[in-house]
């Protein structure tokens, strides 16, 4: 399978990140390594999306603090970014709406049609920023100017830091359907680009709790997008999936990360890291990166038992 025929993936993790742990970052790394080993995917980016303050979880500190901690946690990563969109909305957003936002934003900014699992795109779209001088989109003879997979993906990579840190001024972009009636058009290489929800097995198990998730949202999350699950504590993901009719229905859209060897994982639990902070436990360094610890101490977060 060539680079152009592999599915290009952006991993999106939604959560409170209260605070973000080393384990959360390792989930991204493990998921990327596993997807690459399958030979079917190329992971080109990761997005951390902290939940809105109105989520109402006890002990949830302000999104202002959580965004900064997340940014500190990924500051040395060349592919994971923090996105504030979810925090900046007027109220809490569903996981489904966050996925749809990033899909639509990527579609506008990159000029690619983002495929979902059930309806793969057949008509690629190309985009050109209006305020830049570029080659014409449609040409009759200048074949070398044809947008190749590498060029389009390069554009995605260049845009990712802007997309994930600041919502770009969308009005600067215009996109043209290659099948539009604009004279002789060229065929463009189709790039399949998907956003997959990255989660732990605890979130997968929550899908099985009656009434907790909106079933229509679950259909979209698992059926249209797909999820990548990093098991925790040797969780039996097959058993979990068999407890939900929707998970069984879309089992092929659920990718469970399986390592060749049992890699040691830092503690993912934010709750355990908060307890360590409150008790002055030196093992907090096993849970949190030093820049995050420094920020927590400077801002006096989680020190009181009340959170």
From TrEMBL:
GO terms for molecular function: ATP binding; nicotinamide-nucleotide adenylyltransferase activity; nicotinate-nucleotide adenylyltransferase activity. It is found in: Cell projection, Axon; Cytoplasmic vesicle membrane; Golgi apparatus membrane. It catalyses: beta-nicotinamide D-ribonucleotide + ATP + H(+) = diphosphate + NAD(+); nicotinate beta-D-ribonucleotide + ATP + H(+) = deamido-NAD(+) + diphosphate. It is a lipid-anchor. Pathway: Cofactor biosynthesis; NAD(+) biosynthesis; deamido-NAD(+) from nicotinate D-ribonucleotide: step 1/1; Cofactor biosynthesis; NAD(+) biosynthesis; NAD(+) from nicotinamide D-ribonucleotide: step 1/1. The keyword Lyase does not apply. Keywords: ATP-binding, Cell projection, Cytoplasm, Cytoplasmic vesicle, Golgi apparatus, Lipoprotein, Membrane, NAD, Nucleotide-binding, Nucleotidyltransferase, Pyridine nucleotide biosynthesis, Transferase. GO terms for cellular component: axon; cytoplasmic vesicle membrane; Golgi membrane. Its EC number is 2.7.7.1, 2.7.7.18. GO terms for biological process: NAD+ biosynthetic process. Its cofactor is Mg(2+). Its main location: other. Belongs to the eukaryotic NMN adenylyltransferase family. Monomer. This is Nicotinamide/nicotinic acid mononucleotide adenylyltransferase 2. The gene is NMNAT2.
């Amino acid at each position: 399978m060539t680079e152009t025929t592999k599915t290009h993936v952006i991993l999106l993790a939604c959560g409170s990140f209260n605070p973000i742990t080393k384990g959360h970052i390792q989930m991204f790394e493990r998921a990327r390594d596993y997807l690459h080993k399958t030979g079917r995917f190329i992971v080109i980016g990761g997005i951390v999306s902290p939940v809105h303050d109105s989520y109402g979880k006890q002990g949830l500190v302000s999104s202002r603090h959580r965004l900064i901690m997340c940014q500190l946690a990924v500051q040395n990563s060349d592919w994971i970014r923090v996105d504030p969109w979810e925090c900046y909305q007027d109220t809490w957003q569903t996981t489904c709406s966050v996925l749809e936002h990033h899909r639509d934003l990527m579609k506008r900014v990159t000029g690619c049609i983002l495929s979902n699992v059930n309806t793969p795109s057949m008509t690629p779209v190309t985009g050109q920023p209006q305020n830049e001088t570029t080659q014409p989109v449609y040409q009759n003879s200048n074949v070398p100017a044809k947008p190749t997979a590498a060029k389009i993906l390069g554009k995605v990579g260049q845009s990712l830091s802007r997309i994930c840190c600041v919502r770009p001024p969308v009005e600067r972009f215009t996109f043209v359907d290659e099948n539009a009636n604009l004279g002789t058009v060229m065929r463009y290489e189709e790039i399949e680009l998907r956003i997959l929800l990255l989660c732990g097995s605890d979130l997968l198990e929550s899908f099985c709790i009656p009434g907790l998730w909106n079933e229509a949202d679950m259909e979209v999350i698992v059926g249209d997008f797909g999820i990548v699950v990093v098991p925790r504590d040797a969780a039996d993901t097959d058993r979990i999936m068999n407890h939900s009719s929707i998970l069984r229905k879309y089992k092929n859209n659920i990718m469970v990360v399986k390592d060749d060897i049992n890699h040691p994982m830092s503690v993912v639990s934010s709750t355990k890291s908060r307890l360590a902070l409150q008790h002055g436990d030196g093992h907090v360094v096993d849970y949190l990166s030093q820049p995050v610890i420094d920020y927590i101490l400077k801002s006096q977060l989680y020190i009181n038992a009340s959170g």
